[in-house]
Amino acid sequence: MNSVSLLIALRYFRSKRSGFVSIISKMAFAGIAIGVAVLIIVTSVMNGFEKELQTRILQAVPHAAIEGNINNNDIDKIVGALYENDKVLGAAPYIETQGLISSASSLKGVYIFGIDPVLEKSISMVSDQIIDGSWESLNKEGYNLLMGDILAMQLGLRVGDKVNVLVPDTNLGLAGILPRTRQFTVTGVFSLGAPEMDESFIFLNIKNSSKLLRMNNSVHGIRVRYEDLFLAPVEIHKDLFNIQNSLNLDLEASNWTQSYGTLFKAIKNEKFLISLLLTFIVLVAIFNVVSMLVMIINEKRAQIAILVTLGGTKSFIQKIFVYFGSLIGLFGTLSGLLFGILISYNLGSIIGLLEYSLGVKFLEVYFIDYFPIDVRPSWVFFICSGSILLTLVSSIYPATIASKIEPAEVLKYE
Known about the structure:
- By secondary structure, the protein is of the alpha+beta class.
- It contains 14 helices and 10 strands.
């Protein structure tokens, strides 16, 4: 009987007859397909933003830092104390300030980082993103610097060009606070793929930074990288407590959540809220399935009554319409899956075409300038299985109505 019920359901599903009920059936099918496709596309984009933030932005900056006016003699002691924590992957001293960089044609504000080129590799991926010149040039004699590709383009600079770096002189003289300036040679260009960094970060050797800022054999702090990004807010405070107790130094701690945590949380919240709102598209489509099944049952009451008189049980009738609703949900979901995956993997080209046609840049002021895609099988499975399950459950009520039809009442006037 199950095979007969399925065959009848398949015949209803494959019916090409026109009419109001047929239109509703197609709309229900299309609604599920569109809802599933949109959910896959949007969640893939939001997952892409989250992944890009983790892999590009948060991997380019240290996870946490021990901050304070740290004497050079204490650096090795602090680093040693940090490595007592087996979750620490790297630690490196740094000097950080803001200043101006000028070329022959332009002037721009930048973030200046004085780093140890050898130790910095253990906490940041910038050394792996050099597209011209070399990271090791910071170890060489002379005043050398590295800058982002966007900044180099804005200033019209290439490797080998000379630039002037200006920083405020904190020593107050008769003329007030005057800038200190030094000429540097551009010896490397990096590209992190994050405009916020590529257009405003420059790296100097920590010794040159100390001379430029007159730091008097001290650094601003020590940046730390942990094996797990999300452990950093907790672990850095444990390490700070250990350092303060063992070395008796008055220091502070910071972590990535203070600079990028709000953005990361915003993306996660947006992903949840958008997914929740778009789920209503699927729910509306499923409501259409229920309405369509009820109308088909009313249209085919005589046929259902005849099946009952021929020996069809309530379970048999019920299975026909459960199968029918499930087929719409299954094929609608599969169609949505196909279109969702297809559009997701070609979204970059589609967005590029729209930007070119409309003459706009959709992500011009965001932390990345393109739509990232991360199609996660677990999310796709959850969306598709949820859609099919909801359609199956929603088919039970109309199928129950069909199973309660009394042949005598229906066929009385036939």
